[in-house]
Amino acid sequence: MTHSARRRWFALLTPGQTTGIMLAGLDVVVGPVVLLAEATYADADAARAAFGHPAPAPGAGRFVDFLVVPELPGVEVRDGVLTETRAPSGTELWRLEADGRRRVVSYYDTPAYGWRNGRGDVRPAQHVGLRARYAGGGDYVAAFEDGVDGVHLVAVGEDPPEGFAWTKVGVSRRTVPLSDVELYDAATGDPFAHTP
Asked: How many CB atoms lie within 10 A of CB 62?
């Protein structure tokens, strides 16, 4: 399926979450969000205040980091809270400086590649997010990506399954038609019915 432009969400990160992303490859996202178009914070202090985050410790940086989360299949926001899931393909990590400047720090380039510029393990979270039972055999992490027909299947292990190509050491990917998979939510086991 090719996905048209969708809403994007602003999710403010704690320093611990940023560290988890950049040093450990953390790809699980959850928590309060606002529509990106409404996240017009003048500076880092204004964003912290809006999300109820404490001021930084003395001597710590005055910036904040945030995610821009695209609304792809598997992303669910209820009453302003993003339910726990794997970061969708194309999620961006930004820094909002104390003076209001914004810059991109990293980009989640599908579960098969992980965060660009990150130093952590590139093994996608398997306990949350979409999974797929593939008609060709196997059960895999599943991910959609804007502009790509079908669904990405991501395998973790020493040897890639037949038809999969290496993306990183121990991680491989194959893109298949949506009709070849049965999607479900990894956390609940509930079937996921995707409609364009």
From this structure: 14
